[in-house]
User: Fold these one by one.
Assistant:
Number 1:
Amino acid sequence: MAERRRLEVQERGEVTIVRFVDRKILDEANIQELGQELFQLVEEENRKNLLLDFTNVEFLSSAALGKLITLDKKVKLHGGRLKLSGIRPQIYEVFAITKLNKLFDIKDDEADALAAF
Amino acid sequence: MSNSSSDGLASWDWSIDLSIPSTYAAGKSVIDQLLAALRGAGWSEHEVFGIHLAVEEAVVNAIRHGNGLDEQKQVRVGFRLTVDRFWVEISDEGNGFNPDQLPDPTEIDNIEAPCGRGVLLMRNFMSRVEFHGRGNRVVMEKHRGGQRASA
């Protein structure tokens, strides 16, 4: 099992549920580490279906959005599906401003997202 | 404490002017001071969130893109605050950029481009965003309940 510092990972059938350890995703070093851990799930552990649970996340910067965009591309390249859930209204506003709410499949909560795979 | 320069008003409840080295830790420290001052002045959590995001993007731009993480180069930060108005000026020693030439990050062809998204967020969460000099100095302002710099 890979060592992870920024993510908590749980299997639920064919879906991997990913929760963020940090409440504020803005420190540059943490964002780099976060990206590496996310990409590793797809590229090294060959996980196809990822659900990113944002329940814990209170703040994120554009650098973090960049990692999510790259992750989305990698998931699609590997024939998988990526869904997001538990995004609080302030964070959703960031996705809406950047129109990333159109790129990502965003569900209200974990149950909705799991049902949609 | 200083109320000089181009901030426009004679009296502020809180102000700070600092030169910080181009490190993320120094940027975080000055932003933490701002967040405490905003909350102390009674700004709502939603407004604090928007200002935090805009200032974070501007400070990180100055540290990383402006000064290239060179700790010998300084980022100058000025904050001014009242109960209903916030003003900030951030400048770096870099070559600047032309904000009008940034790709629109919401266009599908640019969606993976790393640049432009931070400036877009700054314009949406602040009432006014202006780039000065050679593009290495940004001035932003937020009025409580006010309009966004770009809808």
Number 2:
Amino acid sequence: MNRHRLATELKKIFPADRVLTGDLELRIYSYDSSFMARFHDFRPDFVVLPRSTAEVAATLRLAAEHGLPVVPRGAGSGETCGCLALRGGIVLDFSSWDTIEEVDAANMQVIARPGVVHFKLNEHLASYNLFFPPDPGSTRMCTIGGMVANNSSGLRAVKYGTTEQYVLGLEIVLAGGQVIQTGGVRCRALKNVSGLNLTKLFVGSEGILGVITKVRLRVWPRPKARGIALAAFADLNEAPSAVLDVYHAGILPSGIEVLDASAIRAINLYQPEINLPSAEAILLFEVDGNPASVEWEGRQIAEIVGKRAVSLEFATDPRRMADLWRGRSVVAVAAARLRPDGSRIFAGEDISVPLNRVTEALYKIKELSREHDVAVVNYGHIGDGNVHTAPVINLDSPAEVGRANKLVDAIHRLAIELDGSTTGEHGVGAVRNQYALAEHGEAVSVMRRLKEALDPSNIMNPGKLLPPEGANGSA
Amino acid sequence: MLEDLTGLKEHYLRCVRCGQCRPVCPVFEEVRNEAASPRAKVFLAHLLAGGELTATSELAAQFSRCILCQACTRECPSAVPVHQIVIAARSLLAGKHPSLLQRTIFKGIWTRPGLLNLSVGLIRRCQGLGLLDAGLARRLLPTSSTLPGKLPRYPARAFIPEITPAAGKAKTRLGYFLGCATNYLYPEIARDTVAVLSRLGCEVVLPRTLKCCGLPQLENGEPDTAALMAMDNLAAFRRLNVKTVVSDCSSCTATLKELQAQQPLQDIEILDLSGLLLGLLDNCKPGRNAVKKTVTYHDPCHLAKAQGITLSPRQLLREIGVEYREMDGAGNCCGGGGTFAFYHYGLSMKILAKKTASIRETGAEMVATCCPACIMQLRHGLAKHKEAVQVVHPVQLLAQSLNPA
């Protein structure tokens, strides 16, 4: 069927203003935050803006009929080309399907459509004294659908874990348009071990197995108090040791974040009033619970890390805490402020290593940065070994771009060498699937069989997560 | 002259397309597709400057969907000046495909105070004869032409002299930048501004040759014209030995500051009225009566986002003695944005509806704001939603509260 007739078919499914076919609009859908997208034109053939399961199912039926790739997209804040149409096809932009269907406070769960923005979900839940704990740095724009598809987490994963621990059930539209409910058709129970756990299969599947159209999430009581202990260190290597000291003392903070010297400078440039002390490293320990426990844990942490730190601060003032947390959240992008002609690039930015190798990872990343002559900013969720590296380069310089690509490859390989992973929370997409065999070995062949079983025509977000076609299942 | 799009390369390259700008953009929040997001405009500007896109009306339409509220510029962690990029892109597009109508209005008429006066007089006359209503009824005119409401008989220029002496001994010589909206739509605000400044010991100077601040020109692809007008205006003040300029219009002060920052005209200080008034009240301590009204406040984007001023207008209202009620989303855009509401009336009204709902929820009798363009938009929206809330400038409340000298 030609393009014009396909557009006509889509306009039978959607109102005309929710089908985008203009060249400019399609070009706009060719990017996300990834470095890779800057050098490709991943333009879809169509963009649709679904607002019902029936619309998604009808789109997938049409796509199956014509062998068109289908690519789900949330806020496009990802860093892996995960929401981009590598092979054309239809992008489903869920930005406008942002209904919180139900807050089932009696059963501690919430039911939301995929386009709900994380920050807005928690804002809504706050009136019920509840919250959805995973806390990505992109909270203000990322969507719940994107979080589930990438199994993302963020600053509080130390205590609360990742998105998968909160997904009780999903509504999924499969290739061809079949709609299924995982986690039980009518289930509102918090525990359910019946059947194969399809929910876990779809969480983090990056749209290659089906399209998420509804999410049932477990929510938790909102902590009554929070506090943030800030510790500054004269030596970056002291930071991972201080984290282990806190764990070994039997304290589990809700978040532990690290900032290296350049990340500290970037935050101070972004918002000077945050006024972080200049140091080689800063650790932010967030504790939450009731006021007495927060006070006690804050004091304990200060005492423990005080042995290694050169300065300490314990904040319970909501404004100061919001500033510190916001500074940490935006450092990912604010890194660009360190160099007038520089851009922060999202590549090699999400490795995850065992806790006892974080020091080694940070040291080796610095070494690789020097070796490839690319400046980097390091920050991340040190409490769970998730290190974010931000190369800052001049995008106008082909030489710098080339060196950055080599650095990024070396960082990914380092993660595997250190018994870690190339990605802790951002996902694989099209930028890390080349490492899948090295990371997962024979398991990749099972992943392939699952993909083939659910999507025999390979139209569901093709080219993502699994290694490029032609690679076999052995490591 | 202002930076053209190529000159802004360093800035648009720095955009990592993280999407942090999406939730703060009032247009994106309504339209909800990526094409409406600020980062999409930066992306398109990059392609346009690099020659990967040609100047088309479709592209111009994409850039036109921006209020220039600067929320994205303020939010951007990478410090990308999105609004400057949009202005430069509009300029490039207008240069390639000039619109005769826009050029006539914004370059031909708006730059010449005499012609502008004549044109506004003509519109007033047509209103008086019922021609505009007839045009609307026959759908010859767009609904957006009702935005300004009924034009007053005389613009402020007609009754404000070039020099207004201070009541009592003059302490300060101040330039008063009379913006077009205050002049033609709300001359009563200008009257109160001059009266209050005079009462508080200022000699107020309003140069006869003053032109528009240049914002409509920036919005409509004529940044060089805007820059020339700013130079003329600042020179006019300098000729009258004015070192400090104040305006009751936050769009004017924001534009003057922005244009001044890019040109070698650093010797004149530009101030927003509310902060200045707080200082003058503190110095003069005039006799005052409390204004017994419940009042909420709307932050104009060009004051809060462009200039970072949010506290002084609120302090001023409290100083006046009103019962102050903060509204939810006071910092959210009202959807006006100067000429934006005229080009995208439907979209603008959707943005405005959220604002009028927030105002209604406060239960306040009045909403105060420091921008006459916002006043126009809010009055239109409140009337449309049949809300009996008055829209005022804080200086009007202050004028009511001051005892005669």
